[in-house]
Amino acid sequence: MRLPHSHPLDLEHGRIDLSHGAGGRAMAQLIEDLFARELGNEFLAQGDDGARLPACTGPLVMATDAHVVSPLFFPGGDIGCLSVHGTINDVAVMGAQPLYLAASFVLEEGLPLAGLARIVASMAAAARAAGVPVVTGDTKVVERGKADGVFITTTGVGVRLAGIDVSGANARPGDAVLVSGPLGDHGMAIMSVRENLAFDAPIVSDTAALHGLIADLLAAAPDVRVLRDPTRGGLAATLNEIAHQSGVGIVLDEAAIPVRPAVAAACELLGLDPLDIASEGRLIAICPAAGAERALAALRAHPLGTEAVRIGEVIADERRFVQMKTRFGGRRMVDWLAGDALPRIC
Amino acid sequence: MCLAIPAMVVELCGKDEALVDLDGVRKRISLAMVDDVAVGDYVIVHVGFALQKLDVGEAEATLALLREIARAQQAAGEAGPAELP
Amino acid sequence: MKYVDDFRDGTVARALGAAIRAGARPDREYRLMEFCGGHTHAISRYGIADLLPPQVRLVHGPGCPVCVLPVGRIDQAIRLALEHGVILCTYGDTLRVPASGRLSLLRAKGRGADVRMVYSPLDALQVARANPAREVVFLAIGFETTTPPTAVAVKQARAEGLGNFSLLCNHVLTPAAMHAILAAPGGVRLDGFVGPAHVSTVIGSAPYEPFARDHGKPVVIAGFEPLDVMRAIQMLIRQIDDGRAEVENEFTRAVTAEGNRKAQALVAEVFELRDAFEWRGLGTVPASALRLRPAFAGFDAEARFAVPAVPVPDHRACECAAILRGEKRPQECRIFGTACTPDNPVGSCMVSSEGACAAHYTYGRFRVEAAPTETTRT
């Protein structure tokens, strides 16, 4: 039964105020008219403090991710779909089928309801498209200035696929390193709309849910050893993490690493290295060299992996260095980024 | 030091300003340091300013020389793979 | 990227490398200093050292404005932001530079300082326009390339009557630093210089004549793309073998003998020489930096706020001074890669990715650390 609200939610001109987080009627109205309406599913409809979920077979995987992004809307996406994709991907790269999401919102006083409605609708669309419902959630409101519009934390639960053993610790010398498509689109799309950098570029975020691509890959190549999505810190950070976890070295072939021309150009303009820039819909896979072609074919057969390529190999190296054969025939290290990827002038 | 990159001028806008293009990336820059810039020119961009016009003829001459040195070296038989641009 | 990718062609590079190997005399060493961090970066990032013969030794110079900025000048900026409450605008490069008391501009931001990254000095003007009730200080760094844009910003501020904008000026001069390197007590073993790219677009090739004429050191001005650097190395080797010491220009597509007169005039109108300036690693160098002319004194943050630069001595174990002069290699410093890393830089050469130590740490340290147990490497 609907609660007796005096006024309907003003999704055109309204703004979040502290009453939306105070536990009273305003909060109930926000949840009912915005969150429940968009995200609605049988579990959310239970209306309790948590969701009662059916039993599932197989070991569980759980991942959580806080999403903070400025600006909230960027070419190719927004914080809403990003918060769904990010956590689905964290579960999926564990070799699991994502099943459910929980979402927790921190809203800043003054946030326009129209913007929030767009974000929640985008989240709902992403969850529906992925087939992974948001089954429980929470909303808090903080005073103006204590948050940046909206922060969304999502937690995902999934079940591990049978016969799959992927881990960042599993890379072995001789393995092939694959990537599902061009790097850095997401990070550069965000930078292109940052107030202090603004440039026009035909760059859109690659944000996407990768569990379908991963399922196809693992069906064709169950011997894949490592799966990761190169988010913060880009390819460089992701591969250094894997090298450390597995106790191996990695040698990349610079000429093979896919980067879109506009992303490369923006990097030149800002003094950044595309290898350090985040993607949100790309997959790194490491598999035995013998199975690399099969794995690549599976990736390329999926719409999110049409540009998949092999970019390097795992070597034995106690120092756990990631190196790169340059286009010049020389070699260099690919190190972790020191600090943040800040645009530089020199 | 002094990160700078050549970009093509695609539009002159207002006093001492231009829109430049680098592989689809477009940015508004200042022309306060250079004279007589026209659409189609290449300028070297640093901290939002055109530092200098790029002399396209000299650029092509330098590239031709580099390729010639490389070709001669290949002919002398010490270089690697065959196809030079 | 037109006129960029062409100068990064790997096939041409390999052949050019072969030509350099074939042309260099096997019985001598060529010690060449690339003054600029831009060249250091290209050499490291493209692995150029692997294409050169062993007798060519590249010495990384001090041409990185972040690396040579003394700690005391960053301290000054931090105090302006923390104690005087100004909005401190600066390039992304300077945000992580370590200052006294384990601070940096980024960490000062965490303590409440209003520090904003800008891409252009004109963006700092925009911050001043948008915040008329606040003082806005632009922490300006850089060599001759970056100085004219600062001059344009200061002139613009005056034209608009932007009374809340001022400049913390750290602009430095390339030829003065090259002189300081050559004047080091006991001399320095260098056979020639790879001359600056973008600095030279502004100042031209003429200011390097004294290095060739008086010091007998050949200078080849080179672009920052890897093929430019390799061609300049080849030109230097030829000069050295011929017994010549001349200023040659590889970067003819952007550099002329006289440089950019309009930019020079802008700088001359707004700035004048400082008697001396402290450089990290090189110490106090006479006539090596600029300050605002009296006519622009109203825009000088140093005159406006009582924040003198207090010199801070470098760490005792730090070998930056010797490394900047080409006397030592980064890996010969005791604290390289241990106490001093890009994440926690102690010395100036580790501060920016263009510094000699940071470039070696980030791109080249696999060469000198214990070799891997090779099993599958090809």
The biggest sheet of chain C amounts to: 5 strands, parallel
Mean pLDDT of chain B: 90
Residue ranges of chain C: pLDDT <50 for 5 or more in a row?
370-378
Portion in strands of chain C:
15-25%
Terminal CA distance of chain B: 30 Å
Structural class given helices, strands, pairing of chain C? alpha/beta
> In which range does the helix fraction of chain B lie?
10-25%
Largest sheet strand order of chain C: 2-1-7-8-9
- Rg of Cα set of chain C: 21 Å
Helix content of chain C: 25-40%
Pfam family, one (chain B): HupF_HypC
Family (chain B): Belongs to the HupF/HypC family.
InterPro entries (chain B): Hydrogenase_HupF/HypC
Protein name (chain B): HypC/HybG/HupF family hydrogenase formation chaperone
Commentary on this structure:
The complex is a heterotrimer of chains A (346), B (85) and C (378). Chain A is built from eight helices and 13 strands. Chain A is of the alpha+beta class. The model of chain A has no long low-confidence stretch (mean pLDDT 94). Chain B is of the alpha+beta class. Helices cover 24% and strands 35% of the residues of chain B. With 378 residues, chain C is of the alpha/beta class. In chain C, strands 2-1-7-8-9 form a five-stranded parallel β-sheet, with helices on both faces. A four-stranded parallel β-sheet of chain C has the order 4-3-5-6, with helices on both faces. A two-stranded antiparallel ribbon of chain C has the order 10-13. Chain C is built from 14 helices and 13 strands. Chain C is globular, with a radius of gyration of 21 Å. At the B-C interface, strand 1, strand 4, strand 5 and helix 1 of B face helix 1, helix 5, helix 6, helix 8 and helix 10 of C. Chain A: Belongs to the HypE family. Chain A: It holds the Pfam family AIRS. Chain A: InterPro entries: HypE (IPR011854), PurM-like_C_dom (IPR010918), PurM-like_C_sf (IPR036676), PurM-like_N (IPR016188), PurM-like_N_sf (IPR036921). Chain A: This is Hydrogenase expression/formation protein HypE.
